[in-house]
């Protein structure tokens, strides 16, 4: 797929979009299939995303059969449990590859995982995953940039306190503990809804888990897991991205098939900024009639404001009246979009991990570059409100996390098109003149 998008600003987004299944829930649930001793894991509402494809390839490499038909994925793990090494090329493409470490150790007694390394939003070590596994009796050695792990005999249950409620570490340890010998207690565990979804999947496979979704999770290890089925929860980040888009374009957007409770932090910030919300059982409508106002927010582990919405919310603050302040506390360098937004006329002052955003009535279309997944989404939102045309390069990041993103934006009236290598819009656009400069 092409790596550039062209966006024409000025349309108030209006309409209805259906949320996809959550990337961050689907990936750990897929990894959990490696714990199967018999049967198949059937996973519904699996989004069609680059990251899902990478995880499927990784599972196949490790001996699983993976079918993805419609929204349903079926994973079976055959008799060949010999493989335990994960290829560098896949692990480097996606940090969530590290989620196979816990299941491999628990089920196959050994694993080799190249260290995932840093990425543009931060250094992202996996020390908490490793510390927890060591507490469960794993021997871990880091050689030539890879973790060599063995669990002589079997992993054993333990009391593990996480220094930070890391999502990935909680997931890895939850999966490892599900098949360890005895009881594990995870303290200061992450409380994200994706953790609860993973626990439900494991319980459906025969695991014994209590307290997922709270800071303390009790897991009684069992001898082996069998087949089961689970539905992936709605993607709160994707859904929220569309709500922010509706609010900042002064339109009216409804997102369906969501769990509004999972989006509480975002919804309350949208309201505080002056947007009107209609929250129903499984859908949310946002409307913004007048100018929005700047708000202060701090990214935090769930139920705090999600770091994965920080770039998109920053765009809203760029266009709000007054000053908005964002403290990024989860990742150490998740502000690369700031420079790109400034190219569009945004007024943002960076002070360490704080951004001070002074609202301006309009942004201007520009040539900008997507630096990571959510930065790409934010630049699309900025382009949708800007005067003139915005061309965003390096949008391959977007396909990691948003299913049918271009189609969905168009469905609610956004003027957006994929550009091919010659700069031509690769499917019909409603206002050809808007894209003339790029043909
Ligand atoms: C696939 C997936 O679910 N990705 C999400 C997951 O990432 P991920 O699971 O990587 O996020 P973590 O919660 O683990 O990381 C949060 C912070 O803890 C640090 N840390 C983490 C583990 C560790 O062993 N040591 C350590 O220092 C990280 O560098 C980061 O600064 O949660 C993040 C925080 O909500 C989200 O932004 C990501 O979208
Ligand atoms: C940071 C994100 O994902 P990942 O952890 O997969 O890099 C994200 O979804 O915004």
UniProtKB/TrEMBL annotation:
Q: Name one GO cellular component term.
A: cytoplasm
> Where is the Enolpyruvate transferase domain positioned along the sequence?
7-409
Q: Is the Kinase keyword given for this protein?
A: no
Residues annotated as the enzyme's active site? 119 (proton donor)
Q: Binding of UDP-N-acetyl-alpha-D-glucosamine: at which residues?
A: 95, 124-128, 308, 330
What Enzyme Commission number(s) appear in the record?
2.5.1.7
Q: Which UniProt keywords apply?
A: Cell cycle, Cell division, Cell shape, Cell wall biogenesis/degradation, Cytoplasm, Peptidoglycan synthesis, Pyruvate, Transferase
The PTM 2-(S-cysteinyl)pyruvic acid O-phosphothioketal maps to: 119
Binding-site positions, phosphoenolpyruvate: 23-24
Record-level GO BP terms: cell division; cell wall organization; peptidoglycan biosynthetic process; regulation of cell shape; UDP-N-acetylgalactosamine biosynthetic process
Q: Which InterPro entries match?
A: Enolpyruvate_Tfrase_dom, Enolpyruvate_Tfrase_sf, MurA_subfamily, RNA3'P_cycl/enolpyr_Trfase_a/b, UDP_GlcNAc_COvinyl_MurA
**Which cell locations does it reside in?**
Cytoplasm
Q: Which GO terms describe its molecular function?
A: UDP-N-acetylglucosamine 1-carboxyvinyltransferase activity
HAMAP family tied to this protein: MurA (MF_00111)
Q: What does this protein do?
A: Cell wall formation. Adds enolpyruvyl to UDP-N-acetylglucosamine.
NCBIfam families named among the record's database cross-references: murA (TIGR01072), PRK09369.1 (NF006873)
Would you tell me the protein name for this molecule? UDP-N-acetylglucosamine 1-carboxyvinyltransferase
């Amino acid at each position: 797929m092409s790596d550039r998008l062209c966006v024409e600003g000025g349309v108030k987004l209006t309409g209805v979009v259906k949320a996809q299944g959550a990337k961050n829930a689907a990936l750990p649930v897929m990894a959990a299939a490696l714990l199967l001793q018999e049967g198949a894991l059937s996973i519904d509402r699996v989004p069609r995303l680059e990251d899902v494809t990478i995880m499927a390839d990784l599972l196949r490499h490790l001996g699983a059969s993976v079918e993805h038909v419609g929204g349903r994925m079926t994973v079976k793990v055959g008799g060949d449990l010999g493989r335990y090494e994960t290829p560098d090329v896949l692990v480097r493409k996606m940090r969530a590859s590290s989620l196979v470490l816990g299941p491999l150790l628990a089920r196959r007694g050994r694993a080799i995982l190249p260290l995932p390394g840093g990425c543009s939003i931060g250094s992202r070590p996996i020390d908490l995953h490793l510390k927890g596994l060591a507490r469960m009796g794993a021997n871990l050695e880091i050689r030539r940039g890879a973790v060599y792990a063995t669990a002589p005999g079997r992993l054993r249950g333990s009391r593990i306190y996480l220094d930070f409620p890391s999502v990935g570490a909680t997931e890895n340890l939850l999966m490892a503990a599900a098949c360890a010998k005895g009881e594990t207690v995870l303290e200061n565990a992450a409380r994200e809804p994706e953790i609860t979804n993973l626990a439900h999947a494991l319980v459906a496979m025969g695991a014994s888990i209590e307290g997922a979704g709270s800071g303390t999770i009790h897991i009684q290890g069992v001898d082996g897991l069998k087949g089961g089925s689970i539905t992936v929860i709605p993607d709160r980040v994707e859904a929220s991205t569309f709500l922010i888009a509706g609010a900042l374009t002064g339109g009216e957007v409804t997102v369906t098939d969501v769990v509004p409770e999972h989006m509480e932090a975002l919804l309350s910030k949208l309201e505080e900024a002056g947007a009107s919300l209609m929250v129903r059982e499984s859908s949310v409508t946002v409307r913004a009639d007048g100018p929005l106002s700047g708000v202060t927010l701090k990214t935090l582990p769930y139920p705090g404001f999600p770091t994965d919405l920080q770039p998109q919310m920053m765009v809203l603050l760029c266009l709000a009246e007054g000053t908005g302040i964002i403290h990024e506390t989860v990742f150490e360098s998740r502000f690369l979009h700031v420079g790109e937004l400034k190219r569009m006329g945004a007024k943002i002052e960076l002070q360490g991990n704080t951004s001070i955003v002074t609202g301006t009535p309009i942004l201007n279309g520009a040539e900008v570059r997507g630096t990571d997944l959510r930065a790409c989404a934010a630049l699309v939102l900025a382009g949708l409100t800007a005067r003139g045309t915005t061309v965003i390069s390096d949008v391959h990041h977007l396909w990691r996390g948003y299913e049918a993103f271009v189609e969905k934006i168009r469905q609610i009236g956004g003027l957006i098109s994929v550009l091919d290598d010659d700069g031509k819009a690769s499917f019909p656009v409603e206002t050809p003149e808007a894209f003339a400069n790029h043909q």
